[in-house]
Design goal:
Layout (H helix, E strand, L loop, with lengths): L12 H5 L1 H27 L4 H16 L2 H16 L5 H27 L2 H9 L4 H31 L11 H12 L3 H31 L1
Helix pairs in contact: 2-3, 2-5, 2-8, 3-5, 4-5, 5-7, 6-7, 7-9, 8-9
Length: 219
């Protein structure tokens, strides 16, 4: 029979809850920066300039082909050795998560751009509109709209993967739960609370994703 004893860890629950804002901070900042970098990479992928196209493809293959945990470890441990700069846990997490999410987002944006009817570009060019303006005012808004459900799904994945920051000492939800577990010598209950918090956050984002998809279908 499973017996749960939450009384021992109840005073520490607020401490675990404080990790929510840390987790959301890593997710939110990394997603915003990854959005910008991913959009730039997507523009490189659809560009006619072969060096840019090749760089974007190579970048994506590297970050999609290696584990995020490895990327995080390299950024945190290799930066002081290679660049003689003592990078903080916050900086390492943001940098690793941003670079990783940008690789995935760039593919979503690329697919969104290619889904836009090429006739719109041809029509705009025939009217004498410069290509940069066509991309900025016509193609990209539609591409982002097409990619929005995928972007929300990427944010869900990033939210869960942000738990990896605990491996280099980041005091997010998982790290705080482990600290409480070590202090109270009981592991199931703190980790259960951490799992419940992640689940609630993911369900909120999933609900938002479904709402966005319905709005796009009805638009």
């Amino acid at each position: 029979m499973i017996v749960l004893d939450f009384e021992r860890i109840w005073p520490s629950v607020p401490y675990i809850l404080e990790g929510v804002q840390v987790t959301l901070a890593y997710t939110g900042v990394s997603l915003c920066l990854g959005f910008v970098l991913g959009a730039l990479l997507a523009l490189c992928k659809v560009s006619e300039v072969k060096p840019l196209k090749g760089f974007a493809a190579f970048y994506t293959s590297i970050f999609r082909g290696t584990p995020l945990l490895l990327q995080l470890g390299l950024v945190y441990h290799a930066t002081p050795q290679l660049f003689h700069y003592t990078i903080s846990i916050w900086e390492a997490g943001i940098l690793a998560f941003t670079l990783n999410s940008a690789a995935y987002l760039s593919e979503h944006f690329r697919a969104g751009i290619e889904a836009v009817d090429k006739g719109q570009t041809e029509a705009a060019l025939s009217l004498g509109i410069p290509y940069p303006l066509i991309m900025k005012d016509i193609i990209l808004p539609q591409a982002i709209r097409n990619s929005l459900p995928s972007i929300v799904n990427e944010s869900i994945d990033l939210l869960k993967e942000s738990a990896l920051i605990s491996t280099i000492g980041g005091v997010d939800i998982l790290r705080r739960a482990n600290l409480v577990a070590n202090e109270k010598y009981t592991y199931f209950e703190p980790l259960l609370i951490a799992g419940a918090l992640y689940y609630v956050l993911v369900m909120i984002l999933s609900t938002f994703a479904k709402f966005v998809e319905r709005r796009l279908k009805n638009a």
